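Section 3.1: Structural characterization of target chains.
Under the original work plan, the team committed to producing a structural model for every single-chain target entering the pipeline before any wet-lab resources were allocated. The record below documents one such target. The sequence was received from the expression subgroup and is listed exactly as submitted; it comprises 384 residues.
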Amino acid sequence: MKILVLCLIALAIADKFDQFRVFDEDEFGRTLIDTLQMQMSTGEPIARFIEIMRNLETSIENEQKEDDKANNEYQNQCTEDIKILQQESANLERRTVEIQSILDELEPLRSYKQGQYDAKNAWKVETEKKLADLVKKRETEKAEFDKKVEEHDYATFVIETVRRMFSDKNQSFLQTNNESQWQKVRDYFINASEQAKKFEIKKSYSKLFNVFAEIANAAQTEDFQNSPTVNKIVNLCDLMLKQIEDSKALETKAEQKRLNMFLLEKGNFDKDLTSLNNALAQLTAAILGLDNRIQDQKRDLSDYNARLDAKNKQSEDRGGECREKAYNYQLTREKREQKRQLVSQIIGAFSANQRDFAEYVKLRGQAGDFRGKNFQVLGNPTED
């Protein structure tokens, strides 16, 4: 029965109350209608409602003005903050460019110095090899010379022994048919010949000593004390000793010449190595210094890049906050403007049609929907 009555009332006043129904469909409008209905139920003058509505409209306008002012201040601060952040980012980026420019100079210079070092070091290795070869050659020459001297000295000793044997008339082996003594002489020469076969240079001495052994073998049947052969042997020994002495002198002279040449060449190599070591030490220090500078610059570059990324992120975050604030401000402004327009429309409608408005509110109250939660002017109640 209640539903039927409501439907009949709604149909009867549908055209008359269309503009009021629009207010009641809005949540804020319904709240305002509820306020009017409450004013009417207390018996206060209708003008009081108009005053309340106008004060509300003024309050909404003032609130919006304050919000506009706060938003302008906030957006101006945003603009200033972002400008500062962007300037700081630009300064950081300019510094990274400067550091990279320094690295672009240092790294090629470091490569150039390394190339110089490698070349000098290769030269040093080659020089050291040449010096080692020279020293080895000198050691070989010295060993060969010492061997020659040793062979000359041995030959000199043997020949001098022969000369003493044949120049001393009192030697018992010179006696005729003293076979045991002559055998010792032969054995001595044969042993000397065998030793001379081991010579590395003067192997001809072995043949010479064999000749002396043959002479000793044949001499035991002769009277050497009265034989001219003795003088020939002594003279031969003197000749051989002179030749050995001359040969040794030549070898000594040649050895001295080789030694002087060695010392000269070694001195040149030593000078080169000293110069190379000094150059390498300087290059090593230069490369180490460049490495330290490059590491410092790379460390600074990494630091500035990190700071730049952080500053850009800060700028983006600040920009996002400002955009979000502007978006929320716009939404709030639109909602507030809708409320203000609704209040203004209600004031206008009520002022122009107070009787119809009052009748609409009265019917609304009779329908039992004082707060407008269930009442619909067009019907559609939410309860039976």
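The chain has eight helices and no strands.
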